[in-house]
Batch of 2 targets.
Target 1
Amino acid sequence: MTERITGVPVAVLDSPAVRRMGLKVNALERWLLQQPRTKHLMRSLFAVRTLTKLKRSLRVPRGRGEFWQAGRSVAGIHTIDHAGTIVREWADAAEEAYGVQ
């Protein structure tokens, strides 16, 4: 989970780009995010910063500055398989369970 993208906790996949960026906001940013009057300003600044980084990353060769947002269930992913393999596994499981071919 990182707060550096939008100011609220967001799940991202671990990558070198994420490690360089850092996962936590610094003390000043954290304090400003906790204050009712400055919270929206800080989130807006984070959004503008993120958009400029995204725009700049479109010109950089793939793989160097990438980070991918992930859902909360990403912790259960241990391998990355091809879609065809997954479909075959599910079809085999359905055939065993229901006798469907």
Target 2
Amino acid sequence: MNRGGTGEHEGQREGGSRMALPVGSYAVDTRTGQLGRVMGHEGPYVQLRPLGGGREWDCAPEAVRGVTLAEHDRPRAGEDGAPVG
């Protein structure tokens, strides 16, 4: 299982171009601060699902980033889908 964070923002290549986060990784919707798990990639969108379960939502790739270690290691921060920031 890919837990997301390495301490750096994932989903960003050197030089600033974006790459797709892998299915199963943790991600943050930067528009809302909501934490989710990447469920897939549909068309131009990344599909995220709240960690506690619930309805998936689509997010533009430029508004998604991998979680940092600090975000991931919070005591289940965002487990109910609440914003992490």
